[in-house]
Amino acid sequence: MRKQQRILKRAACFVLMTAVLISFMPQGFGRAQTAEAASVKSIRSAAALRSALTSSESGAYRLSADISGVTKAIVVKSKTKSLDLNGYSVKGKDRTTGLITVKGGKLTISDSKGGGQIRNTDNQDAVGCESGTLIINGGSFRGKYYAMYNTGGRTTINGGSFVIVSDGDCIDSNGALTINGGTFANSQDSAAEVFYIGSPDANLTG
């Protein structure tokens, strides 16, 4: 009998503690998390990636498959967008500019799983910024002569791996540039210069 009473008391205490914890949670806590997850759109193709990043609407996007065959630069021109590589790759070639280029608005690139990559197999950069804002928090960026260029926008690099596979500069910047982290290398020549900074508005702290 006493054992049953102890079990009932413990069960009552557990129910009471659970009720107290729930009362302290922000109103709509579960719904907010669900809504946030639903707001991140999955990208599985080059066409979908181009449509998302070139649209006139802000949005958050996450790769859910490797993407190849990008034959022309994907240009961000307006609004605020984010791209999570999510461990997947974007590969293609454009010989005139970065495979993904910012010409207005704001683009943030991250890689939540690690191993994600943007690679331009032609002569130019993986990513570029000509105006607007580019923020790179993670991912691998590979180009032949350049990995990232900035000709007039504002670029912040907080992390990521930047690699070139020929003579050139990993980072080629004539715009506002802040580097807080990341790794930079020439896979063909470890002694080669990896930065070209042509603007006084540069801050390298990483």
Tell me the layout of helices and strands.
Blueprint: H1 2-24, H2 29-39, E1 40-43, H3 46-54, E2 59-63, E3 67-70, E4 74-76, E5 80-84, E6 89-92, E7 100-110, E8 117-120, E9 127-136, E10 140-143, E11 146-150, E12 154-157, E13 161-164, E14 169-173, E15 176-179, E16 183-186, E17 195-197, E18 202-204
Give a verbal description of the structure:
- The protein has 206 residues and is of the alpha/beta class.
- It contains 3 helices and 18 strands.
- 33% of the residues are buried.
Report a brief summary of the structure.
By secondary structure, this protein is an alpha/beta fold.
The total count of helices amounts to 3
- List low-confidence stretches: 5-9, 11-24, 29-36
Strand content: 35-45%
Give the SSE string. Answer: HHEHEEEEEEEEEEEEEEEEE
Secondary-structure class: alpha/beta
DSSP summary, beta strand count = 18
Q: In one word, what is the shape?
A: globular
**Percent helix:** 10-25%
The biggest beta sheet reads: 12 strands, parallel
Mean pLDDT: 82
Distance between the termini: 67 Å
From the alpha-carbon coordinates, what is the Rg to the nearest angstrom? 23 Å
